[in-house]
């Protein structure tokens, strides 16, 4: 007899793009899957994703070109082996999503309509419904998951701890004390951008999966690398932080300071654009710069236009106030090329994980592609492994995971925002939230400015940190490792 209240081949924690795809992949391979979601399906952060999937699909494109763009954006910190996996396998995952019924945008000849975004040298972004890609993908995969008999969907269920026995993961424990045994656990809970007070993410994106893994003893890495999206709406009641997709700049939208002057290459990588905006705001004292998308075909971005119109702004006639906001965590649970964490049986995919793919600055739309590429790899590896013996004793009741207070969120924005320094990061070491303290420790280790990490006291990129990642062990010890 097992000590678990229920038992599955795979337990997937999180029902965004990565989690849904992992669950479906497992079920289609014959596995019994538990899909555990704190929110109702189709209400995850992935639902709001406006970007698309980056994949080398055009005749003039190639995985080699995609790789070069990824490494250029990543500022000497991209783990090349992970990037090679992504660029080689992304086209097949796009085709697989089409087979699952996801309807991507096409041109009048029926070919995929490929968009251009910052940092890409060629059109390679696949969208669905213009800027509604996340919504379309998550809705379709959610519908398939609900219909799949091998998937047990547990909505409104929060995981409180990763269950380990004899040095490996054997399941999870929920907040209400239920034990769910599993041959493998896949963490797909999203990122941590909502730990910052100004963010594009929903409130639940507080690094839950990272904390679950860390408390179980898994390694985390690159937590200092939070990407700030350049164009989040500001000063709009009810829409503060609303993300205006980078794709509008790919279609010609421009950025202007309060004097009306353009001041940055709008299609530069995100760290460059966010930094240029931050410098312009600091110099002028203005709360925002202005995004001019009046020349862009509004029909291509219906949800952006509708949201702004509902807020009293007409992007077809006037400029929109924008400023950077915390958007995407490049760091997370350290995993290998099969999404395996440092704890046997525990996997992490999507923004919860850190493969090293994104380096110090994520290339636009590589993240959704990463969800599908590495979720597929995680499930394949998990099902190929021999299942361990079921534990005979129940795990101890876990304490509740901490939630970020307003003070924590304001502290991270102030002390680990677009520009930080040693003094501000040291102040965060006393923060009440454990992940905030780990973010500060990683930032203090990286004594340079690289990509999304800008330290005013170490303003230059240091070659000694090339390919070097700050890793924090489960016991809190940190070290700098070289990944290739």
Please characterize this protein's 3D structure:
- This protein has 484 residues and is an alpha/beta fold.
- It folds into three domains: 274 residues, FAD/NAD(P)-binding domain (3-Layer(bba) Sandwich); 100 residues, Alpha-Beta Complex (Flavocytochrome C3, Chain A, domain 1); 77 residues, Up-down Bundle (Methane Monooxygenase Hydroxylase, Chain G, domain 1), CATH 1.20.58.
- Helices cover 29% and strands 20% of the residues.
- It contains twelve helices and 21 strands.
- Strands 1, 2, 6, 7, 8, 9 and 16 form a seven-stranded mixed β-sheet that branches. It has a five-stranded mixed β-sheet with strand order 17-15-10-20-21, with helices on one face.
- The radius of gyration is 21 Å and the shape is globular.
Overall tally of domains: 3
Helix/strand structural class: alpha/beta
Number of helices: 12
CATH first level of the largest domain: which class?
A: Alpha Beta
Q: Could you name the CATH homologous superfamily of the largest domain?
A: FAD/NAD(P)-binding domain
Biggest sheet details? 7 strands, mixed
CATH topology of the largest domain: FAD/NAD(P)-binding domain
Mean pLDDT: 94
Please give the oligomerization state of what you see: single chain
């Amino acid at each position: 007899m097992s000590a678990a209240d229920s038992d599955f081949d795979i337990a997937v924690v999180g029902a965004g793009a990565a989690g849904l795809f992992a669950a479906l992949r497992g079920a289609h391979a014959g596995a019994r899957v538990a899909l555990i979601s704190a929110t109702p399906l189709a209400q995850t952060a992935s639902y709001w994703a406006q970007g698309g999937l980056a994949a080398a699909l055009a005749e003039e494109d190639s995985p080699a070109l995609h790789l070069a763009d990824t490494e250029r954006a990543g500022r000497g910190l991209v783990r090349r082996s992970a990037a090679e996996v992504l660029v080689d396998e992304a086209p097949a995952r796009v085709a697989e999503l089409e087979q699952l019924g996801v309807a991507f945008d096409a041109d009048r000849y029926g070919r995929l309509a490929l968009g251009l975004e910052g940092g890409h040298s060629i059109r390679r972004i696949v969208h669905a419904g213009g800027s509604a890609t996340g919504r379309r993908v998550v809705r379709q995969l959610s519908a398939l998951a609900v219909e799949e008999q091998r998937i047990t969907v547990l909505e409104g269920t929060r995981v409180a701890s990763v269950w380990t026995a004899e040095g490996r993961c054997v399941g999870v424990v929920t907040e209400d004390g239920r034990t769910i045994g599993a041959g493998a656990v896949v963490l797909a809970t999203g990122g941590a951008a909502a730990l910052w007070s100004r963010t594009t993410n929903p409130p639940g994106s507080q690094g839950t999966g990272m904390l679950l893994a860390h408390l179980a003893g898994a390694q985390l890495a690159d937590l200092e690398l939070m990407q700030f999206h350049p164009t989040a709406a500001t000063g709009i009641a009810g829409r503060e932080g609303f993300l205006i997709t980078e794709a509008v700049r790919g279609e010609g939208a421009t950025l202007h300071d309060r004097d009306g002057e353009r001041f940055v290459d709008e299609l530069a990588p995100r760290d460059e654009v966010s930094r240029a905006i931050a410098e312009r705001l600091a110099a002028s004292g203005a709360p925002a710069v202005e995004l001019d998308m009046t020349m862009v075909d509004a029909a291509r971005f219906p949800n952006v236009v509708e949201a702004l119109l509902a807020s009293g702004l007409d992007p077809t006639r006037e400029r929109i106030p924008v400023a950077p906001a915390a958007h995407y965590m490049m760091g997370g649970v350290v995993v290998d090329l099969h999404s395996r964490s440092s704890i046997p049986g525990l996997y992490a995919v999507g923004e919860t994980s850190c493969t090293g793919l994104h380096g110090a600055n994520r290339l636009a739309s590589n993240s959704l592609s990463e969800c599908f590429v590495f979720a597929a790899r995680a499930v394949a590896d998990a099902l190929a492994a021999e299942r361990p013996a079921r534990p005979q004793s129940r795990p101890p009741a876990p304490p509740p995971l901490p939630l970020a207070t307003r003070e924590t969120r304001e502290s991270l924005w102030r002390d680990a925002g677009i520009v930080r320094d040693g003094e501000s990061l040291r102040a965060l070491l006393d923060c009440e939230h454990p992940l905030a303290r780990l973010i500060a420790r990683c930032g203090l280790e990286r004594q340079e400015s690289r990509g999304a990490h800008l330290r005013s006291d170490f303003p230059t990129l240091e070659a000694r940190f090339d390919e070097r990642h700050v890793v924090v062990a489960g016991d809190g010890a940190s070290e700098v490792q070289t990944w290739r």
